[in-house]
């Protein structure tokens, strides 16, 4: 207990309530200011883990305990409404007021059954009492002990919880288990996804658990049965997609030729591994997108990664003179597409070079130029790769910095004059007399997606950053991955929003990519609009053309 070393420093008030390290129940927790503060903090953290289109509401504190360590642990059981579901969450919030530390150190939420009614002689859907919760965590921990994996799995969802009285209490529940990035160790027991993020390449199992509690026996709890359907109920085995016929079709579709049989074998293996990943991304898809054998299906993560920004962007970089864009007021159109208004050039291909930022920048300026000057020009990315010395060519860059560089250089040449090579050239071949388009500044656009849409419809396509998590195997549809898999603060790809619309009840953005017309929807990516999916709303900028 090295935490106790700080005992001497503790303000006396912390020690008044009980023994150091012991837990004290807080009566009337909803009337206790500290508990309410800890609860609100936990709720904020929990909501941060959910997709932002729904929030937990109607919070009720079921119980609260405090424990004085070197600081205070708040053990909270709270019940919340989440959409049509009622969830019960056990959270631990750790507060060390003298160092301004507030942390949610553990969280575990389960769906409660709406009804407690028993069918005659049947199985009772249970309200989540303490024993049921114990049965579930017992099942999960035993599953982790017994599985062969080195990594800890955690339930994405618990459902169908029931309790039956047969020679003890027999608990049954279904758990959608997802492997995390944490190794199995004593330290990681009972950790939530906040501390152990899911690994999308990790195992996914839908398991049925049966746990027996016999209070008079030692041990009291036994995991009597668990059956897992690896890969979830949603799709079959990923190897369905890696059949040789599929690989042959893939090769024909994308005109792939491998030089040696050995290379061919290696690519088939990569293809199979990738189809397994695609299937898992499909499992955590909330929209209508399909993932499968795209043109990149035979590339390893490293090879594919060459077309992304090598490091996630530092979102704090913002040139001093970048102004906030004016957001148009009033009604915006329900859909808009700049491709129908002559402001978007054909889809380009960056190749194996991390120059996405340059394509995002030229795409925006092409749009601004077309709208202001009534001429659609295809502008040079290679000029930026070679001559923008603040950015790093094929090793990454930022559109906001590229606007600055273009102003310093004096403008952009056309694609025709300064063609794309897809590698860092030693020299900058910029020739000022060949400048075709000039800009006079740049603006940062809102993070609110309605305001982004309003600005876009009035002013033109927008340069954005996005987390490319779901893109390698995107075949089409409206992409909407779970937030825990597609971290909105890790932007690694620069693209261009050219429009938006609604399909059925799904609002979406139309995003121009730079991976050629044979990827996605003829080179385009549609993404769910209104939930900050993959951080697409966090780095929206445009050049200004006068
Ligand atoms: C829960 O039970 C329902 C009804 O029996 C079933 O359709 C569903 O697949 C079960 N859930 C899981 C995750 O097994
Ligand atoms: C710059 O471009 C102009 C017009 O195309 C051309 O006449 C001139 O020779 C070029 N200068 C250099 C240094 O290439």
From TrEMBL:
Keywords annotated in UniProt: Disulfide bond, Glycoprotein, Hydrolase, Protease, Signal, Thiol protease, Zymogen
PROSITE patterns per the UniProt record, alphabetical: CYSTATIN, THIOL_PROTEASE_ASN, THIOL_PROTEASE_CYS, THIOL_PROTEASE_HIS
Gene Ontology MF, one: cysteine-type endopeptidase inhibitor activity
Sequence ranges assigned to domain Peptidase C1A papain C-terminal in this UniProt record: 332-544
Residues annotated as domain Cathepsin propeptide inhibitor: 247-304
Xref: Pfam families: Cystatin, Inhibitor_I29, Peptidase_C1, SQAPI
Domain of life: Eukaryota
Entry keyword annotation includes Transmembrane helix: no
InterPro entries named among the record's database cross-references: Cystatin_dom, Cystatin_sf, Papain-like_cys_pep_sf, Pept_asp_AS, Pept_cys_AS, Pept_his_AS, Peptidase_C1A, Peptidase_C1A_C
Signal peptide range in chain numbering: 1-15
Domain (Cystatin) ranges: 18-110, 118-229
One Gene Ontology biological process: proteolysis
Database matches in PANTHER family: CYSTEINE PROTEASE FAMILY C1-RELATED (PTHR12411)
Family: Belongs to the cystatin family.
Name of the protein in its database record: Cathepsin F
